[in-house]
Amino acid sequence: MISKEKIVVVDDEKDMRDFFEIMLRKEGYEAKTFASARAALEYCSGGRADIVISDIKMPDMGGLEFLKALKEAEPELPVIMITAYASVDTAIEAMKAGAYDYFTKPFKVEEIRLNIKNAIGFRRLKRENQALKRDLKSKLGFANFIGTSQSMADVYSLIMSVVKTSANVFITGESGTGKELAARAIHYESGRKDSPFVAVNCGAIPENLLESELFGHQKGAFTGAVSSREGLAEQAGGGTLFLDEITELPLHLQVKLLRFIQERVVRRVGGTADIPVDLRLIAASNKDVEKEVKAGKFREDLFYRLNVIRIDMPPLRKRKEDIPLIAAHFVEKYCAAHGKEIKRISEDALRLLVDHDYSGNVRELENIIERAIALEASGVITPASLPDYLINNMDMPVNLKTVPPGGIDLEKTVEDFEKAIIIDALKKSGGIRKKAAELLGLSFRSIRYKLSKYGISDDGD
Question: Which of 46-55, 68-77, 115-124 has the lowest mean pLDDT?
Fold first, then answer.
């Protein structure tokens, strides 16, 4: 016999307790109600609840105090908070304290019913998390990722924990760590895999076009709107909308995105109708989002709505044990692309690859291997085919004032030196191109050209 999930309801109003008890039992759950938060805390601390639904305004022990105490005792237990006193500050405090979600009275019964169902799935998957970690740790790779490091096993596990839910996901990490790859893995491992995956780079679309791109527009809404057009959110209906570089979204559009997340409807520019859209939302950023929130550049309430499940993509320098596997994968890939027959990487060359810190992460390693495949004439990649900045640990690759006895390829040497200096300037400027250009005495246009020329990844402005 399959056991019923037990849902605990805490509210000092008897009518509300009775409502939830009837609704939950009708849905097939086991309901347990409490008028006192202290009594509920004692009961739940024994691990007897699958979900808790709690009011915020209660005598004796308030809902926020109850939430904080409960999360200390049962950190994995989903808690849904409800209040008749709508307040953005209260909502943010509840989400900070670990609430699964937050509703204001009067709420839509169907909305909270769906939220409970998702929370049940979330709880069930959390319980399987440790077993997943053990199983996935033994794999070479997962969903086009490559790596057996513990940090990547944690990423695989998190992805598998979210694919059966519709919870919002926030992916963070440096440029080149695979944030979009993680978003695509979540989509294609989920029940939404047969529906669209729509990726949007919020930093690449002009600000005056962003709203119509995201939410669509009606005919005549602005100059050039000769016909009505659905936005990317509508195009992602049934599937996944991936908002990359989400912190580049202007504040006025952050408000509209928050409304969309809360109500799951879009209103096209120039339109009056609300169009329902069912999708999973995944956001990503290579910035420190908490700092952006503190600086007032990113709305705190939007952040907590998006940050239901957080996936931090580890930089390559923190999973060096994966470098040989990743490098071997790129050798195979680019041998096929360039018609080469290179069987392996020499020990000396591999040691240089592992010792490097990779400011550009996996993208930089891929560029290095592609270059080596193109240059290598033998069947083994040697240090001679690697950029000189790897050999000399970012110092000047050769003494440019003298010519070695065997001579040099001047053009290649100058290019390697220039590339090494640009990468070093990017490191010193925190990845900001404008600052790196100033360090090098270059115009912004010139450094953009050189970054493109050498295939150097950076973090933008």
Answer: 115-124
Shared-domain flag, residues 247 and 323: no
Two tokens at 63? 């809902």
Together in a domain, 355 and 306: no
Decide: 246 and 284 in contact? Cβ < 8 Å. Answer: yes
Q: How many CA atoms lie within 13 A of 217 on its CB side?
A: 16
**Domain of residue 388, residue span:** 317-454
Alpha-carbon distance of 396 to 73, in angstroms, equals: 56
Predicted local confidence at residue 425, as pLDDT? 80
Residue with tokens 């440790």: 130
Token readout for 343 is 């069987």
**pTM (2 d.p.):** 0.58
Using CA atoms, how far apart are residues 33 and 52, in angstroms rounded to an integer?
10
Please report, for the domain that includes residue 171, its CATH number.
3.40.50.300
pLDDT for 400 equals 53
pLDDT tens digit string along 71-90? 988 888 899 998 877 666 77
Say if residue 271's pLDDT is above 70.
yes
Do both 240 and 356 map to the same domain? Answer: no
Task: Of 50-64, 107-121, 181-195, 351-365, give the lowest mean pLDDT range.
Answer: 107-121
Average pLDDT, the chain: 84
